[in-house]
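New to this. Look over this protein:
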Amino acid sequence: MNLNISKAELKKMQASAEEACKLMKVLSNRDRMMLLCEMGQGEKCVSEMEAALDLHQPTLSQQLTVLRKEKLVKTRREGKQIYYSLASQVAASVMTLLYKHYCKK
Protein backbone atom coordinates (compact mmCIF):
# COMPACT_ATOMS: atom_id res chain seq x y z
CA MET A 1 0.00 0.00 0.00
CA ASN A 2 1.35 3.40 -0.97
CA LEU A 3 1.65 5.56 2.14
CA ASN A 4 2.78 8.64 0.22
CA ILE A 5 -0.70 10.06 -0.21
CA SER A 6 -1.00 13.76 -0.95
CA LYS A 7 -3.46 15.93 0.96
CA ALA A 8 -5.55 16.31 -2.21
CA GLU A 9 -5.68 12.53 -2.69
CA LEU A 10 -6.57 12.05 0.97
CA LYS A 11 -9.47 14.51 0.69
CA LYS A 12 -10.73 12.71 -2.40
CA MET A 13 -10.49 9.34 -0.63
CA GLN A 14 -12.36 10.73 2.38
CA ALA A 15 -15.16 12.04 0.16
CA SER A 16 -15.36 8.68 -1.63
CA ALA A 17 -15.45 6.84 1.70
CA GLU A 18 -18.29 9.10 2.83
CA GLU A 19 -20.29 8.27 -0.31
CA ALA A 20 -19.62 4.54 0.13
CA CYS A 21 -20.76 4.71 3.76
CA LYS A 22 -24.00 6.45 2.72
CA LEU A 23 -24.71 3.65 0.22
CA MET A 24 -23.92 0.93 2.75
CA LYS A 25 -26.20 2.60 5.31
CA VAL A 26 -29.10 2.53 2.82
CA LEU A 27 -28.36 -1.10 1.94
CA SER A 28 -28.23 -2.11 5.60
CA ASN A 29 -32.05 -2.21 5.69
CA ARG A 30 -33.49 -5.58 4.55
CA ASP A 31 -36.61 -4.06 2.95
CA ARG A 32 -34.61 -1.53 0.93
CA MET A 33 -32.18 -4.22 -0.16
CA MET A 34 -35.03 -6.45 -1.32
CA LEU A 35 -36.63 -3.55 -3.20
CA LEU A 36 -33.37 -2.93 -5.03
CA CYS A 37 -33.14 -6.67 -5.82
CA GLU A 38 -36.63 -6.54 -7.35
CA MET A 39 -35.77 -3.48 -9.43
CA GLY A 40 -32.55 -5.16 -10.49
CA GLN A 41 -34.75 -7.54 -12.48
CA GLY A 42 -36.33 -4.63 -14.32
CA GLU A 43 -38.72 -1.75 -13.85
CA LYS A 44 -41.48 -2.48 -11.33
CA CYS A 45 -44.65 -0.70 -10.28
CA VAL A 46 -45.51 -0.29 -6.62
CA SER A 47 -48.20 -2.99 -6.64
CA GLU A 48 -45.78 -5.51 -8.18
CA MET A 49 -43.20 -4.87 -5.48
CA GLU A 50 -45.84 -4.96 -2.77
CA ALA A 51 -47.02 -8.40 -3.92
CA ALA A 52 -43.58 -9.86 -4.64
CA LEU A 53 -42.03 -8.81 -1.34
CA ASP A 54 -45.10 -8.92 0.91
CA LEU A 55 -44.44 -5.35 1.98
CA HIS A 56 -47.43 -3.27 2.90
CA GLN A 57 -48.05 0.28 1.73
CA PRO A 58 -46.75 2.33 4.68
CA THR A 59 -43.45 0.43 4.86
CA LEU A 60 -43.11 0.27 1.08
CA SER A 61 -43.67 4.02 0.67
CA GLN A 62 -41.25 4.85 3.46
CA GLN A 63 -38.46 2.71 2.02
CA LEU A 64 -39.02 3.89 -1.56
CA THR A 65 -38.79 7.48 -0.31
CA VAL A 66 -35.35 6.73 1.18
CA LEU A 67 -34.20 5.13 -2.09
CA ARG A 68 -35.45 8.12 -4.13
CA LYS A 69 -33.87 10.64 -1.73
CA GLU A 70 -30.51 8.88 -2.07
CA LYS A 71 -30.91 8.84 -5.88
CA LEU A 72 -30.64 5.05 -6.05
CA VAL A 73 -33.92 4.71 -7.95
CA LYS A 74 -35.80 6.74 -10.53
CA THR A 75 -39.52 6.92 -11.18
CA ARG A 76 -41.79 7.05 -14.17
CA ARG A 77 -45.52 7.73 -14.02
CA GLU A 78 -47.98 6.01 -16.33
CA GLY A 79 -51.54 6.96 -15.53
CA LYS A 80 -52.05 6.21 -11.85
CA GLN A 81 -49.11 3.81 -11.67
CA ILE A 82 -45.62 4.83 -10.61
CA TYR A 83 -42.81 2.64 -11.93
CA TYR A 84 -39.43 2.37 -10.23
CA SER A 85 -36.10 1.36 -11.68
CA LEU A 86 -32.48 1.45 -10.57
CA ALA A 87 -30.77 4.78 -11.15
CA SER A 88 -27.37 4.07 -9.61
CA GLN A 89 -24.86 1.91 -11.47
CA VAL A 90 -22.81 1.66 -8.28
CA ALA A 91 -25.80 0.33 -6.32
CA ALA A 92 -26.57 -2.12 -9.14
CA SER A 93 -22.96 -3.37 -9.07
CA VAL A 94 -23.03 -3.80 -5.29
CA MET A 95 -26.36 -5.66 -5.51
CA THR A 96 -24.92 -7.97 -8.19
CA LEU A 97 -21.93 -8.72 -5.98
CA LEU A 98 -24.14 -9.39 -2.94
CA TYR A 99 -26.39 -11.65 -5.01
CA LYS A 100 -23.37 -13.62 -6.25
CA HIS A 101 -22.00 -14.15 -2.75
CA TYR A 102 -25.18 -14.59 -0.71
CA CYS A 103 -28.02 -15.73 -2.97
CA LYS A 104 -26.33 -18.15 -5.37
CA LYS A 105 -24.99 -20.47 -2.67
Q: What stands out?
A: The first strand starts at residue 44 and ends at 45. The longest helix spans residues 7-27. The chain has a mean pLDDT of 92.
